[in-house]
Amino acid sequence: MxxxxxxxxxEQRRLLREAPPGQDLAASPMLAKLSDRRAFGPGWLFExxxxxxxxxxxxxxxxxxxxxxxxxGQFMNRTYPELVEALEAQPCPDFTVDGEIVAxxxxxxxxxxxxxxxxxxxxxxxxxxxxxxxxxxxxxxALDGTDLTRLPLRTRKSLLRRALRFEAPLRLTPHRNExxxxxxxxxxxxxxxxxxxxxxxxxxVHGRSSDWLKMKCARSQELVIGGFTEPSGTRFGFxxxxxxxxxxxxxxxxxxxxxGYDRATLRDVRARLDERPSERxxxxxxxxxxxxxxxxxxxxxxxxxxxxxxDGMLRHPRFLGLRHDKEPREVVREVVREEPAGRRxxxxxxxxxACRDLTQNPHSFPPRRARAGTARNLNAGPIPRRPTRRRAGxxxxxxxxxxxxxxxxxxxRSAGAxxxxxxxxxxx
Length: 428
Prior knowledge:
Layout: H1 2-6, H2 10-13, E1 17-18, H3 22-25, E2 30-34, E3 44-48, E4 53-59, E5 67-70, H4 81-88, E6 95-105, E7 108-109, H5 111-118, H6 123-128, E8 133-143, E9 146-147, H7 153-163, E10 170-172, H8 181-189, E11 194-199, E12 207-216, E13 219-228, E14 241-247, E15 250-257, H9 263-274, E16 277-278, E17 293-305, E18 307-308, E19 314-315, E20 318-323, H10 355-358, E21 402-404, E22 410-412, H11 415-426
Parallel strand pairs: 2-12, 8-10
Antiparallel strand pairs: 1-9, 3-11, 4-5, 4-6, 6-7, 6-8, 8-9, 11-12, 13-14, 13-17, 14-15, 16-17, 17-20, 18-19, 21-22
């Protein structure tokens, strides 16, 4: 695989360094900032925001096993053994990749469905589970013992596409070279979580960065569970969860959530709450809930809501599931920040010349298999795709690419057809 790096231009090869241990490199993944920005220049890429669990994989030369890690560093090999098996079957013996694990329901990624797999730690039970998972990869941090985080994002994506084979359950996350309000509107209409805008020439930095911006269709975030109320009527388990977020060292109360549970969830969450009793409230603010039970703030919930009220409470919250991949102390209130469209930080070239060569990979597309889903929905299952014919000087992401027609005549694809067809096919 060293030939992939040999093909880089000299200016990018000078950015390469010896990689640290893979687990150290994956210890603090790059995170996006919530934004309401909708106008972007040509130096950005756009991916769909997946409703799943962040996962990084480390495979190092000389080791027999790949390590699948959560964003907080927890090992997930026993929960997703089929993913580990697919990663270990890769011909490349040394890589560190970043991506998201998802489960599908009705053609869309569904975090609630994924919850049923997240709780399994026995590989045999995980393999027998009816919840099928897919691992979407979107970044390459290291290859053949070489640190790639200094390279532009577009180059890292090109290397990722060539370095690995993308067959179920592994998928390459598609991206668009143009986006904004119109693309976000389409994403929301198709039931997506939203979009992630990424600076095409940006490096991979550890922690939250304005080089990655998340644009959500509906508001949701993680919140810490600090207590619960007793159920009433025919309800069992608990009535509502009492939630908060950290502001420095203080856990600020954000309200309660009493909807979004099924019977299995009520039973499971109540058992976890009973294991963490506390005699006093963990919240810095007064909580006026009669008969509230307090717990140690160790559990994190994903909650959807319509907005924050002026006094810092959640409006119309709905429970989505527990998060096992985030530490409670990392949970803060997400604030939408607008970055001026005219502001541009100096970064590396957004479209390095080598990308044209690196993306020409015969293994870029999945093998033919049964049709599942439609090309109009990027969350649907894989769709067979014919190889494409490129004009000299064109880039794989360019809209002026030419697809071979059924009768052998090349025809130009429109921007709309490219959005609905090409991006959907690449995501499988």
